[in-house]
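Below is a complete specimen:
___
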Amino acid sequence: MSLENGKANVRKFYEEVMNKGNFSVIDELISDNIVDHSRLPGFPQGKEGTKQIQAMFRSAFPDLKATVEDIVGEGDKIITRATVSGTHKGEFMGIPPTGKSFTINSFDMIRVGPDGKSVEHWGLMDQAGMMQQLGLAPPPGKP
């Protein structure tokens, strides 16, 4: 599969899964045994873990939106920079809804296999910024 097709699949994950909550396309885009190096604690590795995490985020933030700002690739790796936003309307990792919104930056590196499916993932998102905007953590320098 070409690098451009791999980029299209990664972009499709953002659009269909994250933005629309269309989890059925995960089977088409993610390898059964994907290794996620930034997997949230308590969630299993593999495609099923990805489905569980995405369902948790969609339930907690029903208006979740990810805008891909940049997407670049070389070889079998694709890197994205995205802006992610949402409103906390459902329970999130045991935290009751705050009704507050957040907007953060997210970076992902995905390795795609020969079939174009994601086989490995590394991700960084501004979790501290998200928690501060939701009112769940104090801003820097404040107790």
Q: What stands out?
A: The chain has one domain: 3-133. Residues 3-133 form a domain with the Nuclear Transport Factor 2; Chain: A, fold (CATH 3.10.450.50). Residues 3-19 form the longest helix (17 residues). The chain has a mean pLDDT of 94.
